[in-house]
């Protein structure tokens, strides 16, 4: 009979009837069970019998197990190792180039992991947010569809940069129109930051950029330029600018400081520059370019004493001082025009009259149309202290000589203002300068007016001649004042051309030009002489230029 199994609630298995096989085993429910070793004689193939001895046979050599690779943190996928003495000391971010100490036994990689999600240049930053499709312009003029994740912090930073670049007031961000624009442009950019928030963000950008620049200038030899001036509030300011060549051989220009100074004394300027350089951890100055004020000579002497033993000093700073070439050209031109500006003053007066109101300018344009003068330019008023603006004014004004003459004939306001009358020879002339007449305005008010003289034909001829002569200095100043490319290699060639041109004009038959060129030559020799007053480093630049020869 087959056994019947009953599963009790206790979970034990009980037999209702005795198994027939158990009876045959004498009632022993746990008999001895024989193994294969008891039945089969298993021979060990690694044992060899030699006589009565059993010796262990050597096994053939086995291939070594591969060593377990050392675990490397995924954070290193985003960092470059910087080794010192064969040991990893620093880790540099592949995106923003920020460095962290990364010696394995001291620092670990936790700081590297923490940097990755906050790295401003990490391409996959904030990818955990909701992604949107947007369009990215390509170089070929088309667009690519890319994914974009909105970041409030990035928008706030961009808004602060806009305030800086466009020189906007901080209260601009609280304007009703701007907030409405933000709501339409990106509803997620809410609430729009206040002016206090943008002020703090601008400060954060300044500190970040300052840290980047300080790291960039570390261990470099730089060139400096500085200038000082007084504002209309009688506050003294100084600007310190650096120029250097970066690792990609590109010229870089950065404003280090724009700050107030107590006065314009040389020692005050020198001490201020020294303190600023120490604050920037700069220990290598190549040259310092300043204008020709006597206080700057004192400042240069002070800096030579204080920085003579700095790390990257060259030739004990014997050639630290570089005079501003554009400023010297300005002094030369002013010296030449000093006693010959009567013609320029008269042209300036008629230009000022035309530019003084829209009605006068419109009347002048009608005269230009009648004279059939086709020019895209219009007359512009100069700044008396900037001779290059005077050149630009004369260059355009002489082209409109006939329009000014027609205006003197037809415009009653022009005639009254300049007191124009017809001369004996039929030429229109004005009263002698300095005469005062009374003018009646449209409202019936009477006011006094000091009559100016209109330019004569001789004045226009002189201004035309001045324009041709000043073009040489204008072009040279424009080249030497450039900031996007190196100018030291063009200095010698430009100065040589100016000197040759001045010497030619001295021998000119025109007594006016000859005297003007002679006065310019005296000023030229004061600062540059026969080449012996140049900074000798500028000669080295000429030698290194492959277009010139050593001789």
Mean pLDDT: 80
Largest sheet: 5 strands, mixed
| Strand order across the largest sheet | 12-11-10-13-14
Shape type = elongated
**What is the end-to-end distance?**
129 Å
Can you count the beta strands?
Answer: 18
Low-confidence stretches: 3-26, 33-42, 431-442
Structural class call reads alpha+beta
Work out the radius of gyration. Answer: 44 Å
Note the total helix count: 18
Instruction: Please report which band the strand proportion falls in: under 5%, 5-15%, 15-25%, 25-35%, 35-45% or over 45%.
Output: 15-25%
Helicity range of the residues? 40-55%
How would you explain this protein's 3D organization?
With 551 residues, the chain is of the alpha+beta class. It has 18 helices and 18 strands. It has helices spanning 20-24, 36-39, 110-115, 152-165, 176-185, 195-217, 266-279, 294-307, 325-337, 342-355, 358-370, 387-397, 401-410, 412-418, 457-480, 488-506, 511-527, 537-544, and strands at 5-7, 13-15, 47-50, 53-56, 79-84, 87-93, 99-101, 131-137, 143-149, 222-230, 236-245, 251-260, 285-290, 321-323, 420-422, 428-430, 436-440, 446-450. The strands form 7 sheets. It has a 5-stranded mixed beta sheet. A 3-stranded antiparallel beta sheet has the order 5-6-7, with no helix packed on it. Strands 1-2 form a two-stranded antiparallel sheet. Helix 11 crosses helix 13 and helix 16 (488-506) packs antiparallel against helix 17 (511-527). The longest helix has 24 residues, at 457-480. The radius of gyration is 44 Å and the shape is elongated. It starts with a strand and ends in a 7-residue tail after the last helix. Residues 3-26, 33-42 and 431-442 have low confidence and may be disordered.
């Amino acid at each position: 009979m087959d056994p019947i199994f009953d599963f009790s609630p206790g979970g034990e298995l009980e037999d209702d009837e005795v198994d027939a096989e158990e009876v045959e085993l004498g009632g022993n429910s746990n008999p001895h069970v024989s193994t294969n070793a008891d039945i089969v004689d298993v021979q060990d193939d690694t044992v060899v019998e030699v006589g009565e001895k059993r010796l262990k046979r050597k096994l053939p050599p086995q291939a070594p197990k591969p060593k377990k690779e050392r675990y490397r943190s995924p954070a290193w996928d985003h960092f470059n190792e910087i080794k010192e003495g064969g040991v990893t000391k620093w880790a540099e971010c592949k995106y923003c180039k920020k460095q962290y100490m990364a010696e394995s036994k001291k620092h670990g990689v936790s700081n590297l992991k923490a940097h990755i999600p906050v790295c401003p240049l990490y391409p996959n930053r904030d990818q955990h947010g909701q992604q949107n499709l947007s369009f990215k312009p390509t170089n070929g003029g088309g667009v690519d569809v890319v994914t974009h994740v909105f970041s409030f912090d990035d928008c706030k930073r961009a808004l602060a940069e806009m305030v800086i670049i466009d020189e906007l007031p901080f209260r601009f961000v609280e304007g009703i129109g701007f907030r409405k624009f933000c709501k339409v442009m990106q509803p997620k950019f809410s609430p729009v930051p206040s002016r206090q928030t943008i002020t703090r963000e601008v400060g954060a950008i300044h500190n970040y950029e300052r840290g980047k620049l300080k790291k960039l200038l570390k261990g470099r030899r730089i060139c400096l330029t500085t200038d000082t001036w007084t504002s209309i509030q009688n506050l003294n300011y100084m600007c310190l600018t650096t120029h250097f060549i970066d690792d990609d051989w590109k010229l870089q220009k950065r404003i280090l400081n724009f700050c107030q100074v107590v006065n314009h004394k040389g020692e005050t300027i020198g001490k201020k520059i020294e303190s600023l350089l120490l604050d920037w951890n700069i220990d290598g100055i190549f040259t310092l370019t300043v204008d020709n004020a006597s206080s700057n000579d004192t400042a240069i002497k002070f800096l030579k004493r204080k920085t003579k033993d700095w790390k990257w000093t060259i030739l004990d700073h014997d050639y630290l001082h570089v005079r501003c070439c554009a400023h010297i050209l300005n002094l030369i031109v002013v010296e030449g025009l000093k006693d010959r500006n009567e013609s320029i003053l008269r042209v300036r007066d008629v230009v000022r009259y035309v530019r003084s109101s829209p009605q006068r300018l419109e009347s002048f344009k009608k005269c230009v149309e009648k004279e059939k003068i086709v020019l895209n330019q219009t007359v512009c008023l100069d700044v008396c202290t900037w001779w290059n603006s005077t050149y630009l004014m004369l260059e355009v004004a002489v082209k409109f000589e006939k329009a000014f003459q027609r205006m003197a004939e037809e415009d009653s306001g022009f005639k009254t203002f300049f007191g124009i009358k017809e001369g004996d020879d039929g030429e229109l002339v004005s009263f002698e300068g300095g005469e005062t007449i009374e003018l009646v305005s449209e409202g019936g008010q009477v006011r006094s007016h000091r009559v100016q003289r209109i330019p004569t034909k001789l004045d226009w001829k002189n201004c035309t001649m001045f324009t041709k002569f000043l073009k040489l200095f204008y072009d040279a100043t424009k080249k030497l004042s450039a900031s996007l490319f190196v100018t030291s290699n063009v200095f010698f060639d430009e100065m040589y051309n100016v000197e040759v041109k001045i010497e030619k004009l001295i021998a000119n038959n025109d007594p006016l030009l000859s005297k003007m060129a002679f006065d310019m030559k005296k000023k030229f020799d004061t600062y540059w002489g026969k080449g012996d007053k140049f900074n000798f480093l500028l000669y080295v630049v000429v030698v290194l230029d492959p277009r010139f020869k050593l001789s």
